[in-house]
Amino acid sequence: MDVATFRILTRCALLVTIAFTTGIDGDAEQISEMVRELLELHHSRCRLIFFNLTPHMELISSFNRWKNNGVVILSGTSSNNSYQMLWGDNSTTCRMLLLHLNNNDTITNSTLRLLEDNGLWKLPDAEVLILGLKSEVEAVLLHRCFRNTIHATYFGLHSEMLEAPTSIQTFRSTKVSTKSQLDNLQGYKFKVVTVSYFPYIDYVNHHNEPGTTVTLKDSIDARLIHSFANKLNFTFEIREEPKRSWGLERNGIFSGMMGQLQREEVDFCTEAAPTPERLIAIEYARGYPSDIMVITSLKPSLLPQHLALVRPFSGEVWGGLMVSVVIWSITLWMLQLVWIWRMGGSSIQFNAAFLYSWGALLEQSIPDPSSNNFGKMLVGWWLVFCLIFTTGFRSSLIAHLTVQGSSPPLETLDIMVMQDDWKWGTEERLYKGAVIEYFVKHTDPVIRQVHDGLEVLGATDALEKVRSGGYSFICFRNYIYVIVASLYTDTRGYSPFFVSNKGISVLANLGWGFRKGAPFYSLFMNLLNHMEEAGLTSYWTKDVVARRIKENRAIYNQSSQDTSNVDLSDGRIEVALRLKHLQGAYYLLFMGSVIAFMTLMIENFSQFSS
Question: Per its UniProt record, what InterPro entries does this chain match (predicted)?
Fold first, then answer.
């Protein structure tokens, strides 16, 4: 709310307050008209709530005409049901509460409790003007219902002012200034709760007991908190959540960090993900994109070298080729028979047509079996087909002979669950909160199958199982990348593990959680949005990961160079073909010799029998 709006609304509030205080029911129409004029000058969608403990019916009936302008008149006799629509809806751009108190502690306390029950503490931007005796200032302003209110103004009156007549016209020029914006928190000490999840947040515990204070290590949230503290002039005390849990919901009650925010035990928490249930209990500010869960398995195994001869083409292509040879041979043989039947001449045998089609594929010079132009045309197109096929086979065969192929990698959960005798697990430190809810509540049969067979264990134990084979580790990409690059990658960038390029988005995004009604929430939310839009959080993510890998590799006496996958080939590697590369050719030669020998024996046996 800007200063001009605040002044106009304050003048409206003071007019009605003085009327309530002095009991000027005779001038109700004049007061009502003055309020209407002020409302039409500015901000027609601002909601004004006038709460008076001693109602003046004539004045209230006059103001009821302006309910469409957002004016709400409530008296001490109003029922609780009157507060259901007290604060307006999402279209309400501003709210002002005018609270007129009388000298009755019982009624005052019940009124303040009523305001708390109706959620005034959830509206930190609501302007609050209170009119009462000077002796009530401290007790009223320190009440819990105003604990999050940013702008609260108390007009303290002497008791004799309540009895003195007051001129309404005096308040046409009333001016009240607003408080300054929350650009300096004056060293306020925030209470922060956290759970470790690198690279977003990492720390060192001060003690071993649960819920101890921590010292932040270099991480994304650590950089954000320190940057915000320097800009906004605040301090903070950060503690680890005792059970290291983000929080699960049971009957509207949260555990873990979400529970501490729900109970208003802390001001905000570090890295967390939003869920529909959490957004009801806390305020949430997006900080950065979420990480995806990937599959870590052994690198694909090498395919047997003796099958390199058939690997250039898939099984479907080889099958299509065999069918094409047979069909073309039959077609040529049938056309020649038709030609001989109509025009005469010598016939050809089917085996001659078949051997010609096969010989052309093998680039062997065999006499053309066709005896007419129709046959020669068919042979010409077959030769073109053979040229294309053999050229493709030859070029692909060279690659498969020099570089041994490997089995397909495990890129998706669908492929993983289809493997025979395969098992999988996930990181126990991260399988909490929203991650559990994702697997438990998901309706996809593949996700359900993964959840049913999911084993929860530490990353070190899981990677050892992966190394033994028949096992996959499902974890967030940035988390597992740091571990693999730090501990399982040599100086040349080689690692025995394969981390899938595809993944599943378990979390919508990541950010910070704030207690409901926190007056500083919008300020932090804007800062987090600016950081992300400027690309700083993305840059920090890469930088934090790279620094941590260098630190870990230095600790384990490994190279501190960039640990991304290193391509050792420069495009000029020469590979000499050895016996293992050409073993398939020898097997083919041996098989062909055996078939030829058996054919010879069959022919000789046939001739001998005849």
Answer: Insect_Ionotropic_Sensory_Rcpt, Iontro_rcpt_C
Q: Decide if 207 contacts 216 (C-beta within 8 A).
A: no
Number of other residues whose CB lies within 10 A of the CB of residue 119: 14
Same domain assignment for residues 45 and 194: no
pLDDT in tens, 69-106: 455 555 544 444 444 456 766 667 777 787 777 667 77
Do 381 and 440 share a structural domain? no
- In the chain, DSSP finds a helix count (H) and a strand count (E) of 19, 19
Distance CA 259, CA 253 (A): 7
Tokens of 204: 């060192």
Is residue 414, in this structure, part of any structural domain at all? Answer: yes
Domain that holds residue 608: 577-610
Amino acid in the structure at residue 100: H
- Residues 334, 339, 341, 347, Cα dihedral to 10°: -70
Q: Which helix (H) or strand (E) holds 235?
A: strand 234-240
Tokens, residue 269: 């928490």
Distance between CA atoms of residues 163 and 166, nearest Å: 9
DSSP state of 146: G
Residue 71 or residue 405, greater confidence? 405
For residue range 267-307, what is the model confidence (pLDDT) as tens digits?
A: 999 999 999 999 999 999 998 888 899 999 988 876 777 67
Diameter of the chain measured on Cα atoms: 143
- The Cα 220–Cα 536 span in angstroms is 10
Both 123 and 272 in one domain: the answer is no
How far is it, in rounded angstroms, from Cα 191 to Cα 194? 10
| 511 pLDDT more than 50 | yes
Rounded CA gap, 189 and 202, in Å?
21
pTM of the model: 0.68
DSSP β-bridge partners for residue 236: 190
Q: Give the count of domains, the chain.
A: 5
Residue 340, both tokens: 């001989």
Kindly tell me if the per-residue pLDDT of 134 is higher than 70: yes
CA-wise closest residue to 216 among 242, 196, 234: 196
Q: Do residues 400 and 308 touch, judged by C-beta distance below 8 A?
A: yes
Verify that 9 and 149 share a domain, yes or no: yes
Cα-based distances in Å from 412 to 294, 446, 530: 8, 10, 35
Report d(CA 482, CA 485) in Å as an integer: 5
Amino acid at 208: N
Amino acid at 544: V
Residue 64 token pair: 């009821």
The separation between CA 33 and the C-alpha centre of its own chain, rounded to angstroms, equals 53
Q: Where are the alpha helices (DSSP H) in 495-564?
A: 521-533, 536-555
314 and 237 in a common domain: no
Place of tokens 């007991």: 209
User: How far apart, in whole angstroms, are the C-alpha atoms of residue 229 and residue 223?
Assistant: 10
Closest residue by Cα to residue 47 from 116, 94, 98: 94
Verify that 168 and 200 share a domain, yes or no.
no
* Structural tokens at position 177: 């200034």
Give the span between the Cα atoms of 548 and 51, in whole angstroms. 58
Residue for token digits 């499902």?
474
Q: What contacts 274, CB < 8 A, 6 or more positions away?
A: 284, 286, 434, 508, 509, 511
